[in-house]
Amino acid sequence: MKLRMFAFATALMTTAATGAASSVDYTALRDDSRMHNELLGASIAYLIDENCPTLGLRKFRLLNKAFSLRKHAMTLGFTSKEVMAYVESKTEQDRFRAIAEPILAKRGAKPGDEDSYCAVGRAEIKQGSFAGSLLYEG
């Protein structure tokens, strides 16, 4: 999944590109509503981008959001390195995909149907949702 792009954006903000030790407890990040909502929105945007050839990701906006989210995570007591390890974690990426896919399906996206993903993406853009703010048509 292209959640790695979000991880890449986070990596650009950090000086260390290695993961933190697995002993870090990420419960505070998982339970934080802003972290959850923004990472879920990014997951939705990535899935739309992967499945709709006419919509793309606003990479500079994504980077700006990543800076802001990293700063927020640091107020929760995490280092840049720990935030990066969390975002890059396959476990977390899979967890967000498992949450995002049913949401997209409920909104009308069907696996293998590009038009359905494009329609959902356009609706997100029109609504001004977090996911929609990360997408553009073109």
Provide a descriptive summary of the structure in words.
Helices cover 70% and strands 4% of the residues. It contains eight helices and two strands; from the N terminus they run αααβαααααβ. Strands 1-2 form a two-stranded antiparallel ribbon. The longest helix has 19 residues.
Poorly predicted runs are: 10-21
Strand order of the largest sheet: 1-2
Helix percent band: 55-70%
Strand-residue fraction?
A: under 5%
Tell me briefly what this model is.
The protein has helices spanning 3-13, 27-31, 33-51, 59-75, 80-88, 90-106, 114-127, 130-133; strands at 55-57, 135-137. The chain is mainly α and 138 residues long. It has a two-stranded antiparallel sheet.
Core attributes:
single chain, 138 residues, mainly alpha, two-stranded antiparallel ribbon, 8 helices
Question: What order do the helices and strands come in, and which of them pair?
Answer:
Layout lengths: L2 H11 L13 H5 L1 H19 L3 E3 L1 H17 L4 H9 L1 H17 L7 H14 L2 H4 L1 E3 L1
